[in-house]
Structure formats: structure tokens, C-alpha cells
Design a protein that fits this description.
Blueprint lengths: L2 H7 L11 E2 L5 H8 L6 H14 L12 H10 E2 L4 E7 L5 E6 L5 E8 L4 E4 L3 E2 L17 E2 L2 H14 L16 E4 L9 H12 L11 E5 L3 H10 L3 E5 L5 H7 L8 H9 L10 E7 L7 H11 L4 E7 L13 H13 L34
Helix pairs in contact: 2-3, 5-6, 7-9, 10-11
Length: 375
């Protein structure tokens, strides 16, 4: 299925349950066009845009410089609210996982990972996933639908609410939320148009103002959209690689049958802006007896030798009935040493949020395809 047909089949709703149109996720030009139906001048759209993205308000009544009559019209026809918080879980290491309910009742998980130097928000792009990677818990959940640009942005804005990062929260030294990674539920490049719209507003200096250098998009290898992503967004690229050859990768990642390694790595070599200063990140989950031998490491060296990159080695995060076991630490360290001796950075990722099923590959919600109710 093409990305376009995929987007049409699993499209996201633009209206909430009451029939109101979401203004979140519209570009400024789109917002001006929508509000022109009420004969509003463009400066009013700019004011509303500022209230939404610079001030973080969730009701039109909070927009103090708008006439009362206009606020009533906006409240009747449009929405700027947030997803519903279903559950919040806090890990012993400080990681927070939120289960959020969208306007049609579908659910996604999002994770905030704080460290002394940065705070990273792991954002979802779809309800469920279509890729069925065998080691990934999310892949056991059928794809229900794509998230719209408003729902992707709403995740970031929800996190800013809870981290008190809007001006209305008062003075605060620095920001807790510094980085965004599109590594939550779903394959971002199978929902490219919506993800791109959301990230452009994230990066807009009058939007959420998050630098593209602080945004990473992770893909399992949807080759046709990789170059487009680099050209249009210029964000950091991470590739879920997880195998050094087609045989192993096709076994654990069925997408490799459509986009084999040769095609994927060609797309990486030509990714706009890739250089020694701006490397691609290859994610590699360590599966005992599957992809973790010294020979596998040497294969990986040959595979990536001409691509400016680093390799993140991820100890497998277990989930019930996965059928996989994490490689022993000494095996992971031996694997890393071979990569490092060949000149690669090969850090071993420390699992975060494992005790609340918030670590890499563990996200899953209770949404089911038959529950979908598009408006």
C-alpha cells in the first residue's frame, strides 16, 4: 500500500465529538482561511495563533484581547483543547508515561524522559502500528488510525502543560522539555503529511519554537519518504535497523521485504545534510542468539562503513510472550567493542521507564480498530 493510500485509509478526524473544528495543527495561513468565513481580519488569526502556541491557552475565553462576541463564536465552532489524561505513571528513574485519550476515544501513550542535561519527549504518530516488528510490543496492536497534526501537537502541548512551561506558569529557570523524538507508537513516515505539518509548527519561531536540531524522527525504513523528510523538515534521522543483513532483518522486521537494506542505506547516504557533524543514528536492539554475535557486529561494520553515523545498542526490553530474550551484557559489550574498534560510536543505551513499560519497544494502548468513529 502506498503512503498516500495508507493515509486515506487510516485518516484522522479533524472535528471533535461535538462537531467543532480543531484549530490546533492548522498553519497560520490555513487558520486565516478558516476564520475568514467569519469575516475576521488576518490580525485576529495571528492573535489566536499566539494565544495557542505562545501562551498555551486551552479555552477561547482566556484570549483577553479578543472581543467577547468573537470568543463566543470561536467557542461554538472551534476547539483548542487537549487530549484527556487517562493514566499517568512515574518510574523510579523519573520517567513519566501518559496514556492519553483522543476526541474519538482512541488512546496513545507518550513518554517524558528527564536527564540532567535535557528532557526528551517521545511522541506517538499513530494509534497502534502497521509494521508488526516481532520484538516490539506496539507492533502487536493493530493499526487503528493515523494521528492528525493536531493530535501530534497536542501531545507536546499536554507535556508543556504538565511541566509548567507556558508563560502563565510563572518564572522558571530553563526548560524541562528540550527535545522531541518521534519514536512512540506508530511509523511516522506512514503518516508523513500529518507528522510534517505538526513538526513545522513545533519548529516555527512563532509556534512552539523547538529547533530542528532538537527533533529526531525515527523510521523503520519507509524509503520513499526519507529524502522528503530531510528536504522538507531537516530534522535528525534515526533508523530502526536491528540487523546486519536482509535475512535476519526480514525475519524480525517484515518491512524489509518491501524496502531491503540496500535501498534503505542508499537513502541514508543521500539524506540531506548528513555529515560527520550531523550523523544518522542507527538503533539496534540486542536479541540473544538472533542478531548479537561477533560475526553480526563485523557484518554491521561493513554495512555502515561509508555512512556518517552512530549505532545505539539497545538492550531488549522484555514484554510478556515476546519470544525474545535480551543479550547478556558481556555479549552486548563485546558487540560494542567491535564497532568502536572500527571507528563507530556505539553507546549502550540505559533503559528508562522499564518498570512502567515505558522503555523502547514497550508502548501499547487499549485502542482497537473496531472502535474507530471518524467525524
Amino acid at each position: 500500500m502506498s503512503v498516500q493510500k495508507h493515509a486515506e485509509k487510516f485518516s484522522a478526524p479533524r472535528k471533535d465529538a461535538s462537531g467543532r473544528v480543531q484549530l490546533v495543527g492548522l498553519s497560520l495561513e490555513e487558520m486565516q482561511a478558516v476564520l475568514a468565513e467569519h469575516n475576521l481580519p488576518n490580525f485576529r488569526s495571528k492573535q489566536i495563533w499566539n494565544w495557542i502556541y505562545q501562551r498555551g491557552v486551552t479555552t477561547f475565553d482566556a484570549m483577553g484581547n479578543l472581543p467577547k462576541e468573537l470568543r463566543a463564536i470561536l467557542t461554538e465552532h472551534y476547539a483548542i483543547d487537549r487530549p484527556a489524561l487517562i493514566t499517568e505513571q512515574k518510574s523510579s528513574d523519573g520517567t513519566i508515561k501518559w496514556l492519553l485519550g483522543m476526541s474519538d476515544g482512541q488512546q496513545v501513550e507518550m513518554v517524558f524522559i528527564p536527564t540532567p542535561k535535557r528532557g526528551t519527549l517521545c511522541v506517538s504518530s499513530q494509534v497502534g502500528c502497521t509494521l508488526t516488528c516481532k520484538f516490539c510490543h506496539t507492533g502487536t496492536q493493530p493499526l487503528v488510525r493515523n494521528l492528525g497534526p493536531h493530535e501530534i501537537l497536542q501531545q507536546v502541548m499536554f507535556a508543556k502543560d504538565h511541566l509548567e512551561e507556558w508563560p502563565s506558569s510563572g518564572e522558571k529557570e530553563g526548560r524541562d522539555l528540550t527535545n522531541i523524538v518521534m519514536m512512540g507508537m506508530g511509523e511516522p513516515l506512514y503518516n508523513y503529511d500529518n507528522v510534517a505539518k505538526a513538526l513545522k509548527i513545533c519548529m516555527h519561531p512563532d509556534g512552539l519554537g523547538i529547533s530542528k536540531r532538537h527533533i529526531t524522527l525515527s523510521t523503520s525504513g519507509v524509503v520513499p519518504q526519507i529524502h522528503q523528510c530531510g528536504e522538507e523538515l531537516g530534522v535528525n534521522l534515526a533508523i530502526s535497523l536491528h540487523a546486519p543483513n536482509d535475512e535476519i532483518r526480514s525475519e524480525i522486521m517484515p518491512i524489509n521485504n518491501k524496502y531491503p537494506l540496500a535501498d534503505l542505506l542508499d537513502a541514508c547516504r543521500t539524506y540531506p545534510g548528513v555529515s560527520a557533524m550531523r550523523r544518522i543514528t542507527f538503533e539496534y536492539v540486542m536479541l540473544d542468539g538472533v542478531n548479537d554475535s561477533d560475526d553480526n557486529a563485523r557484518e554491521l561494520v561493513k554495512l555502515l562503513i561509508d555512512i556518517p553515523c552512530k549505532v545505539n545498542l539497545i538492550p531488549f526490553n522484555a514484554w510478556e510472550n515476546s519470544g525474545f530474550v535480551c543479550s547478556p551484557m558481556e555479549r552486548i559489550e563485546s558487540f560494542a567493542a567491535i564497532l568502536e574498534n572500527a571507528g563507530f560510536d556505539a553507546p549502550i543505551r540505559r533503559a528508562r521507564g522499564r518498570d512502567i513499560m515505558a522503555a523502547c519497544g514497550q508502548l501499547k494502548s487499549a485502542s482497537q480498530r473496531e472502535k474507530i468513529n471518524r467525524v
